[in-house]
Design a protein that fits this description.
It is a single chain. The chain is of the alpha/beta class. The chain folds into 2 domains: about 10-45 and about 295-395, Aspartate Aminotransferase, domain 1; about 60-290, Aspartate Aminotransferase, domain 2. Helix content is about 45%, strand content about 15%. It has 15 helices and 10 strands. The protein has helices at about 10-20, 30-35, 60-70, 85-100, 110-120, 135-145, 155-165, 190-200, 225, 255-265, 265-270, 275-290, 295-315, 335-345, 375-395; strands at about 105, 125-130, 150, 175-180, 205-210, 235-240, 250-255, 325-330, 350-355, 365-370. α9 (about 225) links the parallel β5 and β6. α5 (about 110-120) runs parallel beside α6 (about 135-145). The longest helix is centred in the C-terminal third of the chain and has 21 residues, at about 375-395. It starts with 9 loop residues before the first helix and ends with a helix. The protein binds pyridoxal-5'-phosphate. Pyridoxal-5'-phosphate binds near residues 109, 183 and 250.
């Protein structure tokens, strides 16, 4: 319940309605009732996206502390004013290389990167077609831009083509947006088909690699490496520093003229403080560690395969997951999902429920992140406890 005077937003009303309909109270939500479990110890934590276990890597901590000592915690100005640091160019050059692009630009937050980039690229009179399961930051960017928004069925190039054929000609510019590795489902689009449609319909293609970098492809370079695509063919790559790169912030990698346009017109860049030196230094060091220690990516991918195999053997529904770093356990029903999560949290597992507005109410799930430092033993134990928690809630959770 919100304090008097705090506006009740539509998303809050939706959650309240769903809870009531499912006979649940706010105290049944694990985030409120089991906040002490947020930091479940490493081997029992399956909700952290520190995919390559780099958060406390000594080289990354050293790089961040050096930068901190030299430049402090805040850049104290927008980069268009006095906030430009040598660390920015260093990190941006490396990110541009990962994506075979001319240039890159880092922002203080991944969410703000999507919102302000999309809003700076399109406007009323333009068309944006987004994958149905795109992240909130993508949807918010489109809304802010004022462009016409259409949604194509998840990972369905045929559905996308249908929309392009029907609507593209009515708009000046067209932007297609998808994710390289979907955060809630752990699956990927077929980038080749999207590139073909992009060319046929004179559109731009933007791919959010928040969960692709460090996770997909033999060297962890992302969805393009996994699918053998030349990354320079994609118009706009977006990513975050907060996942595999163990830092905070977001970035765009694209052609020089796009980056130059964003420097001036992406409000989350020009009207916001520059990313601080410790975060830049940490992300730059993380990219180096990722390259020098490829066994981390290999271990993450082996763990993902093991988790998906073990879960399927136990009869759990993992949806369309590739089994790379994100594995949903589909329970569909909201009540069962919350109760199963509570059961697991009470046993010391860091496993959280995903429910509306993040996913539709009939697609609720427990979403698992696999990391390079997980062991087969912890994954086996998790799957055993998951199976009993689900069995327990399904048999005992009378309404
Ligand atoms: C697909 C996707 N894009 C963007 C973001 C926003 O990134 P950040 O949390 O670094 O702001 C997230 C966050 O989880 C995400 O999953």
């Amino acid at each position: 319940m919100l304090s008097p005077g705090v506006p009740q937003l539509a998303s809050q009303r939706l959650v309240d309605r769903l809870l009531r309909r499912n006979g649940l109270k706010a105290s049944d939500l694990p985030f409120f009732s089991r906040a002490d479990q947020v930091n479940a110890p490493g081997q029992r934590q399956f909700s952290s996206y520190d995919y390559l276990d780099l958060k406390t890597h000594p080289l990354i901590l050293d790089a961040a502390s050096e930068a901190l000592k030299q430049y402090g915690l805040s850049t104290s100005a927008s980069r268009l004013m006095a906030g430009e640091l040598p660390h920015h160019a260093g990190l941006e050059t490396q990110l541009a290389q990962v994506y075979g692009q001319e240039s890159a630009l880092v922002f203080v937050s991944g969410h703000a990167t999507n919102v302000s980039t999309i809003a700076a690229l399109v406007e009323p009179g333009d068309l944006v077609i987004v994958d149905q399961l795109s992240h909130n930051s993508i949807q918010m960017g489109v809304r802010l831009s004022g462009a016409r928004r259409l949604v194509f069925p998840h990972n369905d190039p045929v559905g996308l083509e249908r929309l392009l054929v029907k609507h593209r000609h009515q708009y000046r510019r067209c932007l297609i947006v998808t994710e390289g590795h979907f955060s809630m489902d752990g699956d990927s689009p077929d980038l080749n088909s999207l590139l073909t449609l992009r060319d046929e319909h004179r559109a731009w293609l933007m791919v959010d690699e928040a969960h692709g970098l460090g996770v997909l492809g033999a060297g962890g370079l992302g969805s393009h490496q996994q699918q053998g695509i030349d990354p320079s063919k994609v118009d706009i790559w977006m990513g975050t520093l907060s996942k595999s790169l163990a830092s905070t912030g977001g970035f765009i990698a694209a052609k020089q003229d796009v980056i130059q346009h964003l420097r001036l017109h992406a409000s989350g860049f020009s009207f916001s403080v520059g990313l601080n030196a410790p975060c830049c230094a940490a992300a730059t060091a993380a990219l180096t560690v990722m390259r020098n220690e490829p066994e981390r990516v290999a271990s993450l991918q082996a763990n993902g395969r093991y988790l998906i195999h073990t879960a399927q053997e136990a009869g759990l529904d993992v949806g369309q997951s590739l089994g790379m770093g994100i594995v949903p356990i589909m329970l569909n029903d909201l009540r069962h999902t919350f109760l199963a999560a509570n059961h697991l949290l009470a046993q010391g597992w860091g496993v959280y429920p995903i429910a509306p507005p993040t996913v539709p109410s009939n697609r609720c799930r427990l979403r698992l992140f696999v990391r390079s430092d997980h062991t087969k033993e912890s994954i086996t134990n998790l799957v055993n406890d998951l199976s009993s928690a689900i069995h327990h809630t399904k048999t005992n959770a009378g309404r």
